[in-house]
Protein backbone atom coordinates (compact mmCIF):
# COMPACT_ATOMS: atom_id res chain seq x y z
CA UNK A 1 0.00 0.00 0.00
CA UNK A 2 1.34 3.41 -0.99
CA UNK A 3 0.45 6.24 1.39
CA UNK A 4 1.28 9.86 0.69
CA UNK A 5 1.98 11.78 3.92
CA UNK A 6 1.63 15.54 4.15
CA UNK A 7 2.97 17.57 7.09
CA UNK A 8 2.61 21.34 7.65
CA UNK A 9 2.03 21.81 11.39
CA UNK A 10 5.02 24.07 12.08
CA UNK A 11 7.75 25.46 9.82
CA UNK A 12 8.38 22.43 7.59
CA UNK A 13 6.28 21.82 4.48
CA UNK A 14 6.85 18.12 3.88
CA UNK A 15 5.53 15.25 1.80
CA UNK A 16 6.63 11.65 1.38
CA UNK A 17 5.48 8.32 0.04
CA UNK A 18 5.82 5.25 2.26
CA UNK A 19 4.98 1.66 1.35
CA UNK A 20 3.14 -0.46 3.93
CA UNK A 21 4.05 1.89 6.77
CA UNK A 22 7.69 0.84 6.73
CA UNK A 23 9.48 1.45 3.45
CA UNK A 24 10.47 4.97 2.45
CA UNK A 25 9.83 5.57 -1.25
CA UNK A 26 10.33 9.33 -1.39
CA UNK A 27 10.80 12.19 1.06
CA UNK A 28 10.74 15.94 0.40
CA UNK A 29 11.04 18.71 3.02
CA UNK A 30 10.96 22.47 2.45
CA UNK A 31 11.54 24.63 5.51
CA UNK A 32 11.12 28.28 6.42
CA UNK A 33 13.52 27.86 9.35
CA UNK A 34 16.13 30.29 7.98
CA UNK A 35 13.51 33.02 7.67
CA UNK A 36 12.03 32.16 11.10
CA UNK A 37 15.53 32.40 12.60
CA UNK A 38 15.57 36.12 11.75
CA UNK A 39 12.77 36.53 14.31
CA UNK A 40 14.23 34.15 16.91
CA UNK A 41 11.37 31.66 16.61
CA UNK A 42 8.46 30.59 14.43
CA UNK A 43 6.14 33.42 13.36
CA UNK A 44 2.88 31.58 12.65
CA UNK A 45 1.71 33.77 9.80
CA UNK A 46 5.05 33.48 8.00
CA UNK A 47 4.87 29.69 8.40
CA UNK A 48 1.35 29.58 6.91
CA UNK A 49 2.33 31.75 3.96
CA UNK A 50 5.40 29.66 3.16
CA UNK A 51 3.30 26.47 3.32
CA UNK A 52 0.82 27.95 0.84
CA UNK A 53 3.65 28.75 -1.54
CA UNK A 54 5.52 25.45 -1.18
CA UNK A 55 2.95 22.73 -0.74
CA UNK A 56 2.04 22.01 -4.37
CA UNK A 57 5.68 21.76 -5.40
CA UNK A 58 6.64 19.64 -2.39
CA UNK A 59 3.83 17.13 -2.95
CA UNK A 60 4.54 16.99 -6.68
CA UNK A 61 8.24 16.38 -5.97
CA UNK A 62 7.39 13.56 -3.53
CA UNK A 63 5.20 11.88 -6.17
CA UNK A 64 7.80 12.44 -8.90
CA UNK A 65 10.61 10.97 -6.79
CA UNK A 66 8.40 7.97 -6.09
CA UNK A 67 7.55 7.71 -9.82
CA UNK A 68 3.88 7.59 -8.88
CA UNK A 69 0.77 9.56 -9.74
CA UNK A 70 -2.14 10.27 -7.35
CA UNK A 71 -4.01 7.39 -9.01
CA UNK A 72 -1.38 4.94 -7.72
CA UNK A 73 -1.88 5.95 -4.06
CA UNK A 74 -3.91 3.98 -1.55
CA UNK A 75 -4.47 6.94 0.75
CA UNK A 76 -3.63 10.56 1.47
CA UNK A 77 -2.53 11.07 5.07
CA UNK A 78 -2.20 14.50 6.63
CA UNK A 79 -1.33 16.04 9.98
CA UNK A 80 -4.61 17.50 11.24
CA UNK A 81 -3.57 18.15 14.87
CA UNK A 82 -1.91 19.50 16.94
CA UNK A 83 0.04 22.46 15.59
CA UNK A 84 -0.07 26.10 14.53
CA UNK A 85 -3.60 26.18 13.25
CA UNK A 86 -3.03 28.37 10.18
CA UNK A 87 -0.16 26.10 9.19
CA UNK A 88 -2.08 22.85 9.82
CA UNK A 89 -5.02 24.06 7.71
CA UNK A 90 -2.82 24.48 4.63
CA UNK A 91 -1.87 20.79 4.67
CA UNK A 92 -5.37 19.64 5.58
CA UNK A 93 -6.98 21.59 2.78
CA UNK A 94 -4.43 20.47 0.22
CA UNK A 95 -4.85 16.83 1.27
CA UNK A 96 -8.62 17.13 0.97
CA UNK A 97 -8.38 18.48 -2.54
CA UNK A 98 -6.00 15.72 -3.58
CA UNK A 99 -8.03 12.95 -1.94
CA UNK A 100 -11.20 14.28 -3.56
CA UNK A 101 -9.69 14.65 -7.02
CA UNK A 102 -7.98 11.25 -6.94
CA UNK A 103 -10.90 9.54 -5.16
CA UNK A 104 -8.62 8.22 -2.41
CA UNK A 105 -9.22 7.78 1.33
CA UNK A 106 -8.31 10.82 3.46
CA UNK A 107 -6.40 9.75 6.59
CA UNK A 108 -6.10 12.20 9.50
CA UNK A 109 -2.86 11.80 11.48
CA UNK A 110 -1.99 13.17 14.92
CA UNK A 111 1.42 14.83 14.71
CA UNK A 112 2.88 13.11 17.78
CA UNK A 113 1.66 9.71 16.61
CA UNK A 114 3.56 10.55 13.44
CA UNK A 115 6.75 11.28 15.37
CA UNK A 116 6.44 7.86 17.01
CA UNK A 117 5.80 6.19 13.63
CA UNK A 118 9.14 7.58 12.37
CA UNK A 119 10.61 4.73 14.43
CA UNK A 120 8.90 2.14 12.19
CA UNK A 121 10.84 3.51 9.22
CA UNK A 122 14.15 3.08 11.01
CA UNK A 123 13.44 -0.22 12.77
CA UNK A 124 11.53 -2.60 10.48
CA UNK A 125 11.04 -5.12 13.29
CA UNK A 126 9.80 -2.66 15.93
CA UNK A 127 6.25 -3.37 17.01
CA UNK A 128 4.17 -2.07 19.92
CA UNK A 129 4.08 -2.31 22.85
CA UNK A 130 6.99 -0.04 23.72
CA UNK A 131 7.64 2.98 25.90
CA UNK A 132 8.49 6.23 24.13
CA UNK A 133 9.67 9.68 25.11
CA UNK A 134 8.24 12.07 22.52
CA UNK A 135 9.98 15.42 22.88
CA UNK A 136 9.44 18.21 20.37
CA UNK A 137 9.07 21.96 20.21
CA UNK A 138 5.52 21.77 21.53
CA UNK A 139 5.31 18.55 23.56
CA UNK A 140 7.16 16.33 26.00
CA UNK A 141 5.33 13.09 26.69
CA UNK A 142 6.27 9.74 28.14
CA UNK A 143 3.89 7.42 26.34
CA UNK A 144 3.12 3.74 26.42
CA UNK A 145 2.52 2.82 22.78
CA UNK A 146 -0.01 0.03 23.34
CA UNK A 147 -0.58 -0.75 19.68
CA UNK A 148 -0.31 1.20 16.44
CA UNK A 149 -3.26 3.48 17.25
CA UNK A 150 -3.62 3.28 21.05
CA UNK A 151 -1.52 5.14 23.59
CA UNK A 152 -1.35 5.71 27.32
CA UNK A 153 0.32 8.89 28.53
CA UNK A 154 2.29 8.26 31.73
CA UNK A 155 3.85 11.70 32.07
CA UNK A 156 4.12 15.06 30.39
CA UNK A 157 5.56 18.51 30.90
CA UNK A 158 3.59 20.72 33.25
CA UNK A 159 4.92 23.88 31.57
CA UNK A 160 7.41 24.28 28.69
CA UNK A 161 8.13 21.48 26.23
CA UNK A 162 11.73 20.25 26.09
CA UNK A 163 12.36 21.70 22.61
CA UNK A 164 10.76 24.97 23.69
CA UNK A 165 13.15 25.11 26.68
CA UNK A 166 16.12 24.53 24.36
CA UNK A 167 14.83 27.31 22.08
CA UNK A 168 14.20 29.81 24.89
CA UNK A 169 17.53 29.19 26.62
CA UNK A 170 19.36 29.45 23.29
CA UNK A 171 17.71 32.80 22.74
CA UNK A 172 18.72 33.97 26.24
CA UNK A 173 22.30 32.93 25.50
CA UNK A 174 22.23 34.64 22.09
CA UNK A 175 22.69 31.33 20.25
CA UNK A 176 19.89 31.69 17.71
CA UNK A 177 17.07 29.46 16.45
CA UNK A 178 16.46 26.53 16.44
CA UNK A 179 17.90 26.26 19.92
CA UNK A 180 18.52 22.52 20.26
CA UNK A 181 21.30 22.14 17.68
CA UNK A 182 22.74 25.57 18.63
CA UNK A 183 23.01 24.60 22.30
CA UNK A 184 24.55 21.22 21.48
CA UNK A 185 27.15 22.89 19.27
CA UNK A 186 28.09 25.50 21.90
CA UNK A 187 28.09 22.81 24.62
CA UNK A 188 30.89 20.91 22.87
CA UNK A 189 33.33 23.58 24.02
CA UNK A 190 31.86 23.86 27.53
CA UNK A 191 32.06 22.22 30.94
CA UNK A 192 28.71 20.62 31.87
CA UNK A 193 29.54 20.90 35.58
CA UNK A 194 30.42 24.61 35.52
CA UNK A 195 26.96 25.85 36.53
CA UNK A 196 24.74 24.14 39.08
CA UNK A 197 21.22 24.25 37.71
CA UNK A 198 18.15 23.23 39.74
CA UNK A 199 16.25 19.97 39.54
CA UNK A 200 12.67 21.27 39.33
CA UNK A 201 10.19 19.63 41.67
CA UNK A 202 7.04 18.44 39.98
CA UNK A 203 4.08 16.35 41.05
CA UNK A 204 3.52 12.99 39.39
CA UNK A 205 6.33 10.47 39.03
CA UNK A 206 6.86 10.89 35.28
CA UNK A 207 5.93 14.54 34.76
CA UNK A 208 8.61 17.08 33.92
CA UNK A 209 8.92 20.85 34.33
CA UNK A 210 11.43 23.07 32.60
CA UNK A 211 10.36 26.62 33.39
CA UNK A 212 12.48 26.71 36.60
CA UNK A 213 15.52 25.61 34.63
CA UNK A 214 14.89 28.27 32.01
CA UNK A 215 14.51 30.95 34.72
CA UNK A 216 17.73 29.82 36.42
CA UNK A 217 19.64 30.39 33.15
CA UNK A 218 17.98 33.79 32.70
CA UNK A 219 18.88 34.78 36.29
CA UNK A 220 22.50 33.75 35.79
CA UNK A 221 22.70 35.83 32.60
CA UNK A 222 21.13 38.86 34.35
CA UNK A 223 23.38 38.55 37.40
CA UNK A 224 26.49 38.34 35.25
CA UNK A 225 25.33 41.44 33.36
CA UNK A 226 24.68 43.38 36.57
CA UNK A 227 28.13 42.50 37.89
CA UNK A 228 29.65 43.42 34.56
CA UNK A 229 31.03 39.91 34.24
CA UNK A 230 31.00 37.80 31.09
CA UNK A 231 28.93 34.64 31.36
CA UNK A 232 30.67 31.64 29.84
CA UNK A 233 28.12 30.74 27.16
CA UNK A 234 29.69 27.38 26.30
CA UNK A 235 29.75 26.34 29.96
CA UNK A 236 26.14 27.41 30.46
CA UNK A 237 25.02 25.65 27.25
CA UNK A 238 26.78 22.47 28.40
CA UNK A 239 25.36 22.71 31.94
CA UNK A 240 21.83 23.33 30.66
CA UNK A 241 21.99 20.56 28.07
CA UNK A 242 23.22 18.06 30.63
CA UNK A 243 20.58 19.05 33.18
CA UNK A 244 17.60 18.90 30.82
CA UNK A 245 18.80 15.65 29.23
CA UNK A 246 19.37 14.09 32.66
CA UNK A 247 15.81 14.98 33.66
CA UNK A 248 14.32 13.54 30.46
CA UNK A 249 16.42 10.37 30.64
CA UNK A 250 15.73 9.84 34.36
CA UNK A 251 11.96 10.09 33.89
CA UNK A 252 11.89 7.76 30.89
CA UNK A 253 14.09 5.21 32.64
CA UNK A 254 12.04 5.39 35.86
CA UNK A 255 8.89 4.77 33.85
CA UNK A 256 10.61 1.89 32.06
CA UNK A 257 11.67 0.31 35.33
CA UNK A 258 8.27 0.70 36.98
CA UNK A 259 6.31 -0.66 34.01
CA UNK A 260 8.83 -3.36 33.10
CA UNK A 261 9.05 -2.10 29.53
CA UNK A 262 11.31 -4.28 27.39
CA UNK A 263 11.66 -1.75 24.57
CA UNK A 264 12.30 1.98 24.88
CA UNK A 265 12.32 4.64 22.20
CA UNK A 266 12.88 8.32 21.60
CA UNK A 267 10.96 10.44 19.09
CA UNK A 268 10.50 14.08 18.06
CA UNK A 269 12.95 16.88 17.30
CA UNK A 270 14.73 16.60 20.64
CA UNK A 271 15.46 12.91 19.92
CA UNK A 272 18.25 14.26 17.69
CA UNK A 273 20.14 15.33 20.80
CA UNK A 274 23.34 13.31 21.08
CA UNK A 275 23.72 13.52 24.84
CA UNK A 276 20.10 12.48 25.41
CA UNK A 277 20.63 9.47 23.13
CA UNK A 278 23.75 8.58 25.09
CA UNK A 279 22.17 8.88 28.55
CA UNK A 280 19.11 6.86 27.57
CA UNK A 281 21.29 4.25 25.91
CA UNK A 282 23.37 3.80 29.08
CA UNK A 283 20.22 3.50 31.18
CA UNK A 284 18.54 1.06 28.79
CA UNK A 285 21.60 -1.17 28.85
CA UNK A 286 21.53 -1.24 32.66
CA UNK A 287 17.86 -2.22 32.56
CA UNK A 288 18.50 -4.82 29.86
CA UNK A 289 15.97 -3.09 27.62
CA UNK A 290 16.17 -2.58 23.86
CA UNK A 291 16.47 1.05 22.75
CA UNK A 292 15.17 2.23 19.37
CA UNK A 293 16.25 5.62 18.08
CA UNK A 294 14.89 7.34 14.98
CA UNK A 295 17.26 8.11 12.14
CA UNK A 296 18.39 11.74 12.36
CA UNK A 297 16.46 12.74 9.22
CA UNK A 298 13.23 11.47 10.81
CA UNK A 299 13.62 13.28 14.17
CA UNK A 300 12.43 16.66 12.91
CA UNK A 301 9.13 17.14 11.12
CA UNK A 302 8.74 15.20 7.86
CA UNK A 303 6.07 13.67 5.68
CA UNK A 304 7.39 10.12 5.94
CA UNK A 305 6.37 9.81 9.58
CA UNK A 306 2.85 10.98 8.67
CA UNK A 307 2.65 8.47 5.82
CA UNK A 308 3.90 5.68 8.12
CA UNK A 309 1.30 6.44 10.78
CA UNK A 310 -1.29 7.03 8.07
CA UNK A 311 -0.88 3.42 6.97
CA UNK A 312 -1.73 2.17 10.46
CA UNK A 313 -4.64 4.63 10.90
CA UNK A 314 -6.02 3.49 7.53
CA UNK A 315 -5.71 -0.14 8.54
CA UNK A 316 -7.57 0.66 11.78
CA UNK A 317 -10.35 2.30 9.75
CA UNK A 318 -9.63 5.80 11.07
CA UNK A 319 -10.60 7.82 8.03
CA UNK A 320 -11.92 11.36 7.65
CA UNK A 321 -14.58 12.90 5.43
CA UNK A 322 -14.09 16.00 3.32
CA UNK A 323 -15.38 18.04 6.27
CA UNK A 324 -12.15 17.28 8.18
CA UNK A 325 -11.01 20.28 10.22
CA UNK A 326 -7.61 21.04 11.74
CA UNK A 327 -7.13 21.31 15.50
CA UNK A 328 -4.51 23.34 17.36
CA UNK A 329 -4.58 20.89 20.28
CA UNK A 330 -5.63 17.27 20.66
CA UNK A 331 -4.41 14.62 23.10
CA UNK A 332 -2.41 11.78 21.55
CA UNK A 333 -4.76 9.24 23.12
CA UNK A 334 -7.92 10.68 21.52
CA UNK A 335 -10.38 8.06 20.49
CA UNK A 336 -12.80 7.72 17.68
CA UNK A 337 -12.96 9.40 14.32
CA UNK A 338 -11.23 12.72 13.83
O1 LIG B 1 9.57 17.73 16.30
P1 LIG B 1 10.07 19.04 15.86
O2 LIG B 1 10.90 19.13 14.61
O3 LIG B 1 8.89 20.06 15.67
C1 LIG B 1 7.80 20.09 16.54
O4 LIG B 1 6.91 19.22 16.41
O5 LIG B 1 7.83 20.95 17.44
O6 LIG B 1 10.89 19.63 17.08
C2 LIG B 1 11.52 20.87 17.01
C3 LIG B 1 12.25 21.09 18.31
C4 LIG B 1 12.85 22.49 18.43
O7 LIG B 1 12.45 23.03 19.66
C5 LIG B 1 14.35 22.23 18.36
O8 LIG B 1 15.12 23.16 19.11
C6 LIG B 1 14.46 20.83 18.94
O9 LIG B 1 13.34 20.16 18.43
N1 LIG B 1 15.69 20.16 18.51
C7 LIG B 1 16.64 19.76 19.36
C8 LIG B 1 17.70 19.24 18.57
N2 LIG B 1 17.33 19.35 17.25
C9 LIG B 1 16.09 19.92 17.23
N3 LIG B 1 16.71 19.80 20.70
C10 LIG B 1 17.82 19.33 21.28
N4 LIG B 1 18.88 18.84 20.60
C11 LIG B 1 18.87 18.77 19.25
N5 LIG B 1 19.91 18.28 18.58
ZN1 LIG C 1 7.11 17.75 15.29
Bound molecules: 5'-O-[(R)-(carboxyoxy)(hydroxy)phosphoryl]adenosine, zinc ion
Number of helices: 10
Element order, helices and strands? EEEHHEHEHEEEHHHHEHEH
Strand order of the largest sheet: 3-2-1-4-5
Beta-strand fraction estimate: 15-25%
Which descriptor suits the 3D outline? Answer: globular
The secondary structure category is alpha/beta
- In round numbers, the mean pLDDT is 97
- Strand segment tally: 10
Termini separation: 22 Å
Taking the sheet with the most strands, its summary is:
5 strands, mixed
Helix proportion of residues, in percent?
40-55%
Task: Give the uncertain stretches in residue-range form.
Answer: none
The radius of gyration over CA amounts to 20 Å
What does this molecule look like?
- With 338 residues, the protein is an alpha/beta fold.
- Helices cover 44% and strands 19% of the residues.
- The strands form two sheets. Strands 3-2-1-4-5 form a five-stranded mixed beta sheet, sandwiched between helices. A five-stranded mixed beta sheet has the order 8-7-6-9-10, with helices on both faces.
- α5 (162-172) runs parallel beside α7 and α6 (179-187) packs across α8 (233-259).
- It is globular, with a radius of gyration of 20 Å.
- The relative contact order is 0.19.
- Zinc ion binds next to α4.
Amino acid sequence: MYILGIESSCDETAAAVVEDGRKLISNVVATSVAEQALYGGVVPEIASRRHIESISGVVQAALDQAKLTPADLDGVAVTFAPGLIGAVLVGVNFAKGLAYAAKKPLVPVHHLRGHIAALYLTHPDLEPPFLCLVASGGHSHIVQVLDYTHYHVLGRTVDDAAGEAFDKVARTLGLGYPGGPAISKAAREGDPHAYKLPAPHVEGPYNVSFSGLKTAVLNAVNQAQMKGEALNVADMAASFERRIDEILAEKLLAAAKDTGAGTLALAGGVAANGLLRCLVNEGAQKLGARLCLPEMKFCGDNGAMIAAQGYYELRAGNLAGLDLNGLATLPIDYNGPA
